[in-house]
Design goal:
The structure holds 3 protein chains of 3 kinds. By secondary structure, chain B is α+β, with helices and mostly antiparallel strands. Helix content of chain B is 37%, strand content 16%. A 5-stranded parallel beta sheet of chain B has the order 6-2-1-10-18. In chain B, strands 12-16-15-13-14 form a 5-stranded antiparallel beta sheet. In chain B, strands 17-11-19-20 form a 4-stranded antiparallel beta sheet. Chain C has 2 domains: 110 residues, Beta-grasp domain (Ubiquitin-like (UB roll), Roll), CATH 3.10.20.30; 120 residues, Fumarate Reductase Iron-sulfur Protein, Chain B, domain 2 (Orthogonal Bundle). Classes of the chains: A mainly alpha, B alpha+beta, C alpha+beta. Chains in contact: A-C, B-C. Chains B and C meet through α3, α5, α6, α11 and α12 of B and α1, α2 and α3 of C.
Chain lengths: 224, 636, 257
């Protein structure tokens, strides 16, 4: 397995690991969004969906482990790359002209990723925690997941954090989507422009899709 | 007393090289690694020689003043490389390439050398392709060719307008492989400042480490100089900023003969001068003349925009004067013709420039084809001048470009100092008084890949030279000489800058030892150069110290050498009472202005030996022409 | 013909040697718009020298944009504001009278500053010396036309091979990554039939050395492509990634640890 270790510690290997975990998370987000859309169809739909998931708990647990590993690898590897890349230029330029040669999305992956990470902690801390572990209002036990979600979406600060994070998630995905293809070695003049557009559309759908829920429930529920 | 022996093998010209190779002594494979060879320069000749000597198993030490071998000026050669492959079925052959080169050189080159060059030309292409040089190809996958000045066949292989770059990267890659394998050791940022000769044999070099300023000594069984030409004596030339004559000049001062110094080539298609601050001239590949038409107005001081000058008022002077070669006439002839029309006042807006027009070619072939062929050259032109050559004709003017002269070498490419080999542009050997387009790359690679590897073995096997320790007193002495020179340059602390004096020398050279020369001007040039040399040594200012990076000091040393070489060029031009190739003496011309060669008195190589106090002694190597009868060189 | 001269304020990085700390020094210059950027520096240096001051060390050679020697970061951009040219081809007509211009050296851990604006890019050569070649001894080459190469393949290889090794890609990259440079060489050789025998060994060896030299990793910002004077495409990086992955996944035992 030496070859794998060498590979994963090489510059290209690290990129590859980012792209691989990133792609997995990209697919996960699609499924996550589709599931969450049931929120718009009322408590029965959403609670039913969550209940359904709970009924296949062993499978979900496996997926959760994989997902969690993907997140960890993506984050750990990303931080490692960031530190190494900083070291590659010990003296910074006085004048930074990077706005003239690259997109802001591509240059801010660490920042956007970090904010999404903070959000992720908050997100898990509320929903995952409340659904599975800590149930003070005795809602999860009654499969009243919808009520938990809408409860949190009635706090303006929570909605605000959520929306900002989703915008940055969009930034992150806009670059990450096409970047993964490039890292996998898929770049050609026929498909790449299409992939880049698709990535932008995907990023917008994810950002708007996930942000629409807190905004919607905040507006119909009124501020608390 | 020096006796020149060209060592030309006997026999029919087509068998000379084959027989010679058989007769050369060999070094057995196990012994090769016991020999150390120094190669100075990493252009086409130096890199290919280093690579090939390394492949053979010699222990090679290669030096360049650049930060990387790939920066050598061969990289800037644009147009292409000739080879007698006859892939186009247009009647090319080794003999024809030989014939064209001899004639192109105006019968001032050695037949045997030129034939050998033509003979190995095909192998060069094979070698380059096998290294991954991406030459232009046809849709069928075969190699493409184009035609070039001075030839009526298409024998030029090219890689867009970056042929030199691709060939050099190929040669450097081969050398890198030998570095990887441990056969070649590359020393970058080292400038050779002197040659060490012990008991009459070349034993090593002294270099300056351009980063630390340290003077370092290196010894070897043989030294190969591949340090290029000396066009920068003109200050403004198409050569790179750092091209210089120092290595060959210092070798000359240690006893190597300098041959035909006045044979310099003025390239017809360069960008005109824009102003005082100009640092160099940019070449526009001669390949442009394949499709571009050269013209000026029929009227003096015509201030009209070129596109407003109607067809009947344009003088396509090359097509008019040389109908069979037209725009593809050789470089010396095209350059002089441009000077002539400009001297008449018919240049662009009455100044020093002529038009190179692609209007008809774009009409005939379409913009796309022209873009494919010359796209990058057009881009360069537009970047520099701010004008779009697809719409407005290019403006061009001749500029110093290549030097056919160089250190004298025999058929084995060895100078009169045993163990000192000189290859590529640094030697004088193959181009006579004028070089044809796309032949410099051919010569550099022929010397490095196919000739030096054989002749080096012969030297080592027959002379059995010893390796001298660098602690030898002579090494110490040469090192001290170099250090003294550095100290002297730094201590003058005068008022004039190095560039200022170099520019002044350049003006003298261009006006009096340039495209056309006469006795009066040459005599003036000699005395002016001497005065300027004195001025330099009493009034130049070289700031900084010798103990770190000091680019002014580097340039000062080079200019000091130009101030001597320039004089020798003028002396050589003055002594050669004829016009031939790049050397045009106004006193020697036919009524129609064509060059008048004097085969009876000047069919020789002028090899100069430096005596004390800037006196030179002339040695003559007579040239005999058995296979191509010297005729008036007509391209009409 | 001489156009109106420009008055400019230059802020130029001066640094005595690799061990010392550098800083910006101000210079005022008046220059013809037809002069090139480097000719402007020549003039400035000539003025400094005539005052007995040490000129600014910067490198250049061919001044035709092909040797790759020159390379300055001008107002934050390697080779200045005009795309697809090297510093030597940048002309002053692209600046306005009264402009302030910041001039810095290429900055990267792998490219230490030697003096002022001169940097050491020998790391590039170390990578090339680790397999950036086709092993073909002189004497053994078959006839040049014996292997057909489709025009498109030859011209794609040429595009990759047109890299001038200036290092602008490293200078532009926010991670100081050398992947555009390395991928250009790997693609040049890997596209041609002659380069196939060593294709995978080459990519493994070159990447290994590249990683050891302190360059950063690629994060696909494509700043390299935007600043490359030869416009070398990042598609070659993708190609290199592919080749590297293939090399690592191949069953044959890798020689490169």
């Amino acid at each position: 397995m030496d070859w794998l270790k060498t590979f994963l510690n090489s510059s290209i290997g690290k990129k590859f690991l980012m792209a691989l975990t990133g792609s997995f998370l990209i697919i996960f987000l699609i499924i996550h969004l589709i599931g969450n859309i049931t929120l718009f169809f009322g408590p029965e739909a959403f609670n039913g969906y969550v209940k359904k998931l709970a009924s296949i708990k062993p499978l979900i647990r496996v997926i959760e482990v994989v997902l969690f590993s993907a997140f960890l690898l993506h984050i750990f590897n990303g931080v490692r790359l960031w530190i190494e890349n900083k070291k590659a230029r010990p003296v910074e330029y006085k004048i930074n002209g990077s706005d003239k040669n690259s997109s802001i999305f591509s240059r801010t992956m660490f920042v956007s990723g970090s904010i999404v990470f903070i959000f992720l902690v908050l997100h898990l801390g509320t929903f995952f925690w409340r659904f599975n572990i800590h149930d003070p209002m005795n809602l999860a036990s009654q499969h009243k997941y919808y009520e938990i979600v809408t409860h949190f979406f009635s706090y303006w600060w929570y909605v605000l954090v959520y929306v900002i994070a989703m915008i940055l998630l969009g930034f992150h995905l806009n670059h990450g989507f096409q970047s993964a293809f490039q890292t996998f070695g898929l770049n050609n003049k026929k498909y790449t422009p299409f992939i880049k557009k698709l990535g932008t559309i995907y990023a917008i759908i994810m950002a708007v899709g996930f942000a629409s829920m807190p905004i919607y429930f905040f507006l119909i529920g009124g501020a608390k | 007393m020096i006796k020149l022996d060209s060592k030309i093998p006997s026999g029919n010209i087509s068998e000379k090289w084959t027989n010679h190779k058989f007769n050369l002594k060999l070094v057995n494979p196990a012994n090769k690694r016991k020999y150390t060879i120094i190669v100075v320069g990493t252009g086409l000749a130096g890199a290919s020689a280093s690579a090939t000597l390394g492949e053979l198993g010699y222990n090679v030490l290669t030096f360049t003043f650049h930060d990387s071998a790939r920066r050598a000026h061969s990289i800037a050669a644009q147009g292409g490389i000739n080879a007698a492959k006859n892939y186009q079925n247009d009647g090319d052959s080794i003999f024809r390439l030989f014939y064209d080169t001899i004639k192109g050189g105006d019968f001032r080159a050695r037949e045997a050398n030129v034939y050998r060059l033509a003979e190995v030309s095909g192998n060069i292409i094979d070698q380059c392709v096998s290294q991954g040089v991406p030459f232009a190809r046809e849709y069928g996958g075969l190699l493409d060719n184009r035609s070039f000045g001075g030839a009526q066949v298409s024998r030029t292989f090219y890689a867009k307008g970056q042929t030199g770059q691709q060939l050099l990267l190929g040669a450097v890659a081969s050398m890198n492989r030998q570095i990887d394998l441990g056969n070649v050791k590359l020393f970058t940022r080292r400038e050779m400042l002197d040659l060490v000769v012990i008991d009459g044999q070349a034993k090593g070099i002294v270099v300056r480490n351009l980063i630390t300023g340290e003077i370092e000594k290196y010894s070897a069984h043989a030294v190969v100089l591949a340090t290029g030409g000396y066009s920068n004596v003109f200050f403004l030339s198409t050569n790179a900023m750092n091209c210089n004559a120092t290595a060959i000049w210092r070798a000359h001062k240690r006893g190597a003969l300098f041959a035909n110094p006045c044979f310099t080539q003025i390239h017809p298609t360069c960008l005109p001068i824009h102003g005082e601050s100009q640092s160099k001239l940019t070449l526009m590949s001669e390949s442009l003349r394949n499709d571009g038409r050269v013209w000026v107005s029929k009227f003096k001081n015509d201030m009209r925009h070129p596109n407003d000058i109607p067809e009947e008022e344009r003088d396509y002077y090359l097509e008019r004067k040389y109908p069979s070669f037209g725009n593809l006439s050789p470089r010396d002839i095209s350059s002089r013709a441009a000077k002539e029309v400009c001297d008449e006042g018919r240049g662009v807006h009455g100044g020093d420039a002529v038009y190179l027009d692609f209007r008809d070619a774009i009409k005939r072939l379409g913009k796309k084809v022209i873009e494919e062929r010359y796209g990058n050259l057009f881009e360069i032109y537009q970047t520099i001048t701010g004008e779009n050559p697809y719409e407005v004709p290019m403006k061009i003017y001749p500029a110093p470009h290549y030097t056919m002269g160089g250190l004298w070498v025999d058929y084995n490419l060895m100078s009169n100092i045993p163990g000192l080999f000189v290859i590529g542009e640094a030697n004088f050997s193959d181009h006579g008084a004028n070089r044809l387009g796309a032949s410099a790359l051919m010569q550099g690679l022929a010397d490095g890949y196919f000739i030096i590897p054989y002749t080096m073995g012969d030297y080592l096997a027959s002379y059995k030279p010893s390796l001298v320790e660098t602690s030898h007193p002579e090494f110490e002495k040469v090192k001290n000489d170099v250090e003294d020179l550095t100290k002297r340059l730094l201590s003058i602390k005068g008022k004039r800058t190095v560039d200022d004096i170099h520019k002044q020398l350049g003006r003298i050279m261009w006006d009096k030892v340039g495209m056309s020369r006469n006795e009066k001007g040459l005599k003036e040039a000699i005395s002016q150069i001497r005065e300027l040399r004195d001025e330099f040594w009493s009034n130049v200012n070289v700031p900084g110290s010798g103990n770190d990076v000091n680019q002014t000091l580097e340039r000062a040393g080079r200019v000091a050498d130009y101030l001597e070489l320039g004089e020798l060029m003028a002396i050589d031009a003055l002594h050669r009472n004829e016009s031939c190739g790049g050397h045009f003496r106004e006193e020697y011309q036919y009524e129609d202005g064509e060059a008048k060669r004097d085969d009876e008195n000047y069919s020789y190589v002028a090899a100069w030996e430096m005596k004390d106090n800037f006196n030179w002694e002339l040695h003559k190597e007579n040239l005999t022409f058995e296979y191509v009868k010297p005729t008036v060189r007509s391209y009409k | 013909m001489e156009s109106k001269k420009l008055n400019l304020k230059l802020k130029i990085w001066r640094q005595k040697n690799s061990n010392s700390v550098g800083s910006f020094v101000d210079y005022n210059v008046t220059v013809s718009p037809d002069a090139s950027f480097l000719e402007m520096l020549d003039e400035l240096n000539n003025n400094l020298e005539s005052q007995g001051l040490e000129p600014i060390a910067f490198e250049s050679d061919c001044r035709e944009g092909i040797c790759g020697t020159c390379g300055l970061v001008i107002n934050g951009q390697p080779h200045g504001p005009i795309p697809r040219i090297a510093t030597c081809q940048l002309h002053m007509r692209n600046f306005k009278d009264g402009d302030t211009i910041w001039v810095e050296p290429f900055r990267a851990k792998a490219f230490p500053v030697i003096k002022d604006l001169m940097v050491d890019r020998s790391a590039f050569d170390k990578i090339l010396q680790a397999g950036g070649y086709i092993s073909s001894n002189v004497g053994g080459a078959p006839d040049a036309n014996s292997i057909l190469i489709p025009k498109e393949v030859a011209s794609e290889a040429f595009d990759a091979a047109s890299c001038i090794g200036c290092g602008a890609c490293v200078a532009a990259c926010k991670n100081a990554s050398a992947m555009l440079f390395v991928s250009a060489k790997i693609s040049h050789l890997g596209l041609l039939p002659q380069g196939q025998p060593e294709r995978y060994r080459r990519v493994e060896r070159m990447i290994k050395v590249m990683d050891e030299l302190g360059f950063g990793s690629c994060t696909n910002t494509y700043a390299c492509e935007a600043e490359c004077p030869k416009g070398i495409s990042v598609k070659f990086i993708a190609r290199m990634n592919r080749d590297y992955l293939a090399a690592k996944l191949k069953a044959s035992k890798s020689e490169v640890a």
